[in-house]
Amino acid sequence: MAGGWSRDGAVQDQIDNSVDDGVAQARSRLPVGQSLIYCEECDSPIPQARREAVIGVRLCVSCQQEADKQFKSFSNFNRRAGKDSQLR
């Protein structure tokens, strides 16, 4: 149930849009193509088991962990939220 000037279902639409954005972002980070034999960052060999488990892998485990740490700067701010919901 929406309140104020918003129509019924607006809150659910906002939630759905946030989920869709999250799914799209996660899919965009999936590797594609053929797996590399050597890490593109440090040139260390990527184990065969990793190449088979993660299709399109481009980084070794160490470099992937570093890349994941840098990606965690993602903000949880809901950019579609109305001013009223941000004031709570």
Structural class: mainly alpha
Shape: elongated
Largest sheet: none
Q: Report how far apart the termini are.
A: 17 Å
- Beta content comes to under 5%
Radius of gyration: 20 Å
Parts with pLDDT < 50 across at least 5 consecutive residues: none
Number of helices in the DSSP assignment: 4
What's the rounded overall pLDDT mean?
Answer: 81
**Helix and strand pattern:** HHHH
The helical percent reads 40-55%
Q: Give the beta-strand count.
A: 0
What's the layout of helices and strands?
Elements (H helix, E strand, L loop, with lengths): L9 H19 L19 H6 L7 H11 L11 H5 L1
Main attributes?
single chain; 88 residues; mainly alpha
How would you characterize the overall build of this protein?
The radius of gyration is 20 Å and the shape is elongated. The two termini are 17 Å apart. 47% of the residues lie in helices and 0% in strands. With 88 residues, it is mainly alpha-helical. The model has no long low-confidence stretch (mean pLDDT 81). It is built from 4 helices and no strands. The longest helix has 19 residues, at 10-28. The chain has helices spanning 10-28, 48-53, 61-71, 83-87.
Structure summary:
This protein is mainly α. It has 4 helices and no strands.
